[in-house]
Amino acid sequence: MRYGNRARSLVIGGCGYGAEKGKRAQFQEEAEHAAAMFDRIGMAEGAKRYALGATRVQLQNKDSRGWNEFAAQMAGHSALGSANTLRGVQKQRPSLFDLVGEMKKITVPALVMTGDEDDPCLEASVLMKRTIATAALAVLPRTGHALNLEEPALFNALVDEFFHQVGAGRWSTRDPRSVTDKIL
Predict the structure, then answer these.
(1) What are phi and psi of 126, to 5 degrees?
(2) From CA 111, how far away is CA 138, in angstroms rounded?
C-alpha cells in the first residue's frame, strides 16, 4: 500500500489473522501466548504444538509427510526470532479493517486466496475482495492456512492463470455497476 509503484500485481494468500474487530484482543493474547511458549519450551517442541493449530491440521490430514516436513522446518527456526516476530510484528500490526481507506487506493491486479477452513482469514479475504477494485477472490475448498502446501497444484494453477491474465493485460478493475447494496 505504501509502495504501490513497486508491484506489478499482488497475490495475497492466507492474510488476515486477528483482523476482525471483535477478535483483535484475542489475537494479541494468542500471539503473546505462542511467543511465550517458544520462549519457554523452544522451537523443537513449540513447532510441534504450533503446527497442530486449527488451521494447520488440514495439511496433516491431507499429507502427513508434507506436514512432518513443515513442522521439521519450523522447528529449525530460531525460538527468539519466532517469539520476537509474534510480539513485534504480528501482534502489533494494524487490523485490515482499519486499512480500508488505504486498500481502496490499490490499483494493481490482486488475487486474494484463502482456504475455506482458514476461519481467521475468511472475513478479511472477503473484505479485501470488496475493497480492492482490482481484486478477485479464490477460496480453496477443504483447505486451511497452508493453502500453497495443502493444494499445491490448485494454488499454482490459480496463480499461473492470474499472472497470464495480468501479463496479457486482461485483468481489469471491477465493473462499478456490480457494486451495490441490492440483492437482485
Answers:
(1) -65, -40
(2) 7
**Whose CA is closest to 147, among 183, 122, 166?**
122
**Using CA of residue 161, residue 166, residue 169, residue 171, what is the dihedral sign?**
positive
* 17 neighbors 90 (Cβ within 8 angstroms): yes
End-to-end CA distance of the chain: 33
| Contact predicate 162/9, CB 8 Å | yes
CA distance readout (Å), 105 to 14, 62, 90, 132, 163: 21, 38, 23, 8, 21
Per-residue confidence at 2, pLDDT binned at 50, 70, 90? confident
Query: Considering the entire predicted model, what is its pTM?
Result: 0.93
CA pair distance 171, 159, nearest whole angstrom: 13
CA-based torsion, 79, 84, 87, 91: positive or negative: negative
In this structure, what is the dihedral angle of CA atoms 89, 91, 92, 95, given to the nearest 10 degrees? 110
pLDDT above 90 for 161: yes
